[in-house]
Amino acid sequence: MSAPDPDRKLLFAIGLCLFASTLAVYAPVVDHEFVNYDDLNLIVHNPKLTRAATLSNLLVHFYEPITSNLLPLYWISMQLGFALHGPDPAAFLLTNVFIHASSSVVLFAALRRLTGSVGCSAFVAAIFALHPLHVESVAWVAERKDVLAGFFWMLGLYAYSRYAESPRSTSRYLAVLLCLACGLMSKSTLVTFPAVLILIDVWPLDRLRGATRRVLLEKLPMFALVAVASAVTIVAQRASGNFAPSAGVGVGSRIANGIESYWNYIFDAIWPAGLAVLYPHPYLLAPVSNRAAIVDAGLGVALAGLTVLLIAAARKRPYLGVGWLWFLGTLVPMIGLVQVGIQARADRYMYLPLVGLAILFAWGASDLLASKRRKLLPPLAVAALIALALVTRQQLVYWEDSIALFERAVAVTERNRYAHERLAYELLQVGRPEEAREHYRAAISIEPTHAPLYYGLAVSYEDAGDHEAAIATYRLALRRDPGMTLAHGSLGLLLLKEGRAAAAKGHLVAAVRAMPDSVEYREALAAARSAASTPEPATPDASDATGDGE
């Protein structure tokens, strides 16, 4: 159980240092922009968030999901943000930073109360505050859900430390349940919270000895909350079609990617180089090869072997097993066994699992450098934290704007079709079509059947003034997707501009049928009809749509 309080001034000073250092490291976010990676479509241009923050408009988030997530506290925080400071990226990001800094302080308080160790608790909290793996969660406006859920996780740990001191206290137990419920309403990642509490019951609390049944029974209401939240999440995700990519990734490929991801997370925690906003799934475009299967099997055996060794060592040093199982277990919902999206893994998924590895490392280093070598601990810890802070400051540079974000992803990942495509789009928006063209070509080389890539490439040609190349490439896009409205519209407009009204008319008809409210398309079609003075075709000319003629 918890040890008597040391000097309260020391604890306050450590908490203040954690909070201030986090703010100092993340200070550059005041100059950041919204990034075109969920920030714009989910937050900035979301009419449900920009409407007045009346009580009824806030309560609607409890039963009306936005996109595929019923996360009322997350969406309420965003709507209140608009009400308080409008669409100011600095204000949104500073809120993220303040929540993250507060979480680090609460984590320190919880671990200190649970373990009695001031030094190790402070070091774990500092790793949580300053590690570059957390830049994605903090410096990305749309990922507010991570820091909000993390805050309730840390509050839950602190509430549980108080409850463990007085397990007959109903109010203290309800405080734990409330923190769990609030966390689940911020992000479903808290589904593993009750299991982590059982680990804490093993170490440092040692509550299972002689009271296993009671300790496990008290977790049943928590698991019930988790079950409800999981069911709601699965229903919402399936309704939105987010599980659809699983059809293209077999079970074997998902397991293989999960094993690889565990090792990648470990390496990134130890040596955080090459971090990116998106790591493409290696098996979305191709199944696991025989050679890769052998490598993944070896990695799986190594992971299992390391687990066995650490659990065996936990008999004498229980923090090894607790920290390791915290890391393994909290990653299970995000490891990709159920594939959601196109990523192989994500830095944001390590927001809570990193704490487990930090516990293992902090208490392990303390034991390793016992007795006379203990004097080495403070300077080594400070050096490690300074190094992490410097890397975090550099990582923040890549989140300044959309171009920097996707340039970084292209630079440090391989075969990243999405990053090339997003970077090309952003380059077009700032008038750099020649650079955009190279990235569209790179994306096409990775996924040549993806029709929107040809459309983007055509736009880059058109913006650069190469209209013939643009026309030919719009036709390539329509070969791969004959129903692409934007390709029909853009090709029709360009053909009309080039004086080829007869060829333009069929494409404009298709565009108007798909987008009847588009004034631009309707006016262009009228002009094409007038210029062509020929009967209107019922559909776009097939040969023109495929590039075989006009």
Provide an overview of this structure:
With 550 residues, the chain is mostly helical. Among the domains are: 126 residues, no CATH class; 131 residues, Tetratricopeptide repeat domain (Serine Threonine Protein Phosphatase 5, Tetratricopeptide repeat), CATH 1.25.40. Helices cover 67% and strands 1% of the residues. The chain contains 27 helices and two strands. The protein has a two-stranded antiparallel ribbon with strand order 1-2. Helix 7 runs parallel beside helix 18 and helix 24 packs across helix 26. The chain is elongated, with a radius of gyration of 27 Å. The protein starts with 7 loop residues before the first helix and ends in a 5-residue tail after the last helix.
Low-pLDDT regions: 542-550
Biggest sheet, in brief?
Answer: 2 strands, antiparallel
Q: Globular, elongated, flat, extended or rod-shaped: what is the shape?
A: elongated
CATH superfamily of the domain at 415-545: Tetratricopeptide repeat domain
SSE order: HHHHHHHHHHHHHHEHHEHHHHHHHHHHH
Helix proportion? 55-70%
Distance between the termini: 82 Å
Looking at CATH, which topology of the domain at 415-545 would you report? Serine Threonine Protein Phosphatase 5, Tetratricopeptide repeat
- For the CA atoms, what is the radius of gyration? 27 Å
* Number of H- or I-type helical stretches: 27
